Amino acid sequence: MKGRSFAMLVMGVCTVYILLPVWWLVVAATKNRAQFTGTNPLWFADFALVDNVRELLTYRDGVFLRWVGNSIAYTGGAALLGTLLAAMCGYALSKYRFPGREALFNLVLGGVLVPATALALPLFLIFSYVGATNTFWSVFLPSLVNPFGVYLAQIYAGASVPDELLEAARLDGAGEVRTFFTVASRLMFPGLVTIFLFHFVAVWNSFLLPLIMLGDERLFPVTLGLYTWNTQVNQLPELRGLVLVGSLLSIAPLIVAFLLLQRFWRNGLGTGAVK
Amino acid sequence: MTARAVRRRVPHKGAITFFVLPFGVLFALFFILPVGYAVVQSLYKVERVGTFGPAREVFGGLTQYSRVFSDGPFWSSIGRVLLFGVVQVPVMLGIALLTALLLDSGLVKAGRFFRLAFFLPYAVPGVVASIMWGFLYSPNLSPFTAVTSRVDLLSADFVLWAIANVVTWVYVGYNMIIIYSYLLAIPTEIYEAARLDGAGPIRVAWSIKIPLVAPALVLTTVFSIIGTLQLLAEPQVFRSFSSAVSSTYTPNMTVYSTSSIPNFNLAAAFSVVLALATFALSFGFLKITQRKGWR
User: Fold this and answer.
1) pTM of the predicted model, to two decimals?
2) Same domain assignment for residues A176 and A201
């Protein structure tokens, strides 16, 4: 029984470490400016969350909502479309033999090792060459490319789509593209959710690319917006509360989504184990 | 049709083009082209005619690279992230491994709750996590005044480790889940055999589980090495909380501040050197572990 208490103690301490900052953020977001200091930081004072949210959403003509919209477009859009592109390419790499296949696969594999931040500066130079920096597309288009997704899709296609099934579909006269969308993509679906999640997190966390590329505040994703506000806290103290409420609002839906989709994470992260 | 053309005909050519082309074009434009462009840009330099004459780009050979290698702040930022990695990566992966083993040992109740709780920070982007911890470290706002009133966690001596804590907080659960999923894939018959031979749970963990999850540890270490060398968002946010974090605190911050001077050629050279260093380190680690037969 000593082992059991030790195990629960370790897990308990770690859980407090993980959850306490989030708890603090939740509590802090509900306090008005006067009570933010001077009251117990880990317990509620007057419940002012609604007022705080209203102030956040109306501040500077509601720029925060615009950032949220941008983030949904950058992150959700790029992850959805990027997953589709990666699935198609990975499927082709797994199921067809064509000239240049090896070369493409090796390039993709090499691409997995290139850190995304190393690309931010040259991407900026290329976009400024064509005069397209500080646009939505300058962040969105590079965010579509996910070599790791292609690599995973190639594994998933090999593991979950039997060649016999494709032969049967061919005998039935179904076209290759139609077979992919009606049969193969369904079999690959759990894997595709994992690719989507990885892609989503990568774009959601990407910081250097929008930081270098964007100057117009109205194009910012929510992370860059909160970062800019945080750099101005010393000049504009009212921003401090807004930064915290904004942080809470931007992560809360994601945390819920992540927890609901955790099954896919475990399956996806375990692919290496069964390989 | 000649015999040669028949042999080279690829079945389903149209479909393959349809599948590969969209990703292929974007990959070429926004991945391969930038890599090449960075290398090309790093070989150029800006020259002026006279002191006030118009600036123009001329081929500079390895001029930028010699500047990179004599740039003191850049190399101290490399040293800083290496020190960061040598301490933070083992601590984080140690906690991840210990908690994954505990979850797998059957000693822990409510394993599902712990897995969910640990994984939660992974949904928090580095910028938001740093803002949150930055407030928690600030002496006049922190709930942990017992600590922050005695030790200034944002001073030059401690801020690197304050940032290390943020990174650990975000990624420890993610790494735990990776290791745990490898543990789940071990067939349980192995444990039965060990138990019959009289091995206790600690012995089983040490002699069977840890060697079998070594590939997961190698994988997570490589990801962590790459992440450490690329550190940017966290220290960049901490500049608002601590004057000890300079604009060249990490290599990527050097790239950013050099490009906003603007000196694009030098920034491109920094980028190339950093990408090569990252590749060399993660590749070197893989090679060393392969030679030791951990994979």
Assistant:
1) 0.90
2) yes
User: Measured between alpha carbons, how far is A20 from A26 in angstroms, rounded to an integer?
Assistant: 10
> Could you tell me if A265 lies within 8 Å of chain B, comparing CB atoms?
yes
Least CA distance to B20: which residue of chain A? A89
pLDDT of residue B107: 87
pLDDT band at A256 (very low <50, low <70, confident <90, very high): confident
Searching chain B, which residue's CA lies closest to the CA of residue A253? Answer: B123
Span B167-198, pLDDT tens digits? 999 999 999 988 998 898 888 888 888 888 88
Q: What's the complex ipTM?
A: 0.89
Cα(A245)–Cα(A65) distance, integer angstroms: 13
| Burial state string for B94-120 with b = 16 or more CB within 10 A and e = fewer than 16 | ebbbbbbbbbbbebbeebeebbbbbbb
Do A133 and A164 lie in one domain? The reply is: yes
Cβ neighbours for B218, distance < 8 A, ≥ 6 positions apart: B285, B286, B289, B294, B295
A34/A89 same-domain check: no
User: What domain count does chain A have?
Assistant: 2
Distance CA A151, CA A196 (A): 13
Interatomic CA distance for residues A190 and A83, integer angstroms: 12
Domain annotation for chain B: domains and CATH numbers: 13-64 (no CATH), 67-291 (1.10.3720.10)
What pLDDT score does A275 carry?
A: 36
Compute the nearest-CA separation of B103 from chain A (Å): 9
A98-127 average pLDDT score:
90
Contact, A105 vs B262, CB < 8 A?
Answer: no
- Facing B240 at nearest CB: one of A36, A223, A230: A230
In tens, the pLDDT along B101-121 reads 999 988 888 888 999 899 899
Separation between Cα atoms, residue B195 and residue A194, nearest integer Å: 36
The pair of structure tokens assigned to B172 is: 């420890």
Task: Report CA dihedral (B121, B127, B133, B135) to the nearest 10 degrees.
Answer: -140
Q: How confident is the model at residue A62 (pLDDT cuts 50, 70, 90)?
A: very high
Domain that holds residue A89: 49-274
End-to-end CA distance of chain A: 37
Tell me, yes or no, if B94 comes closer than 8 A to chain A by beta carbon: no
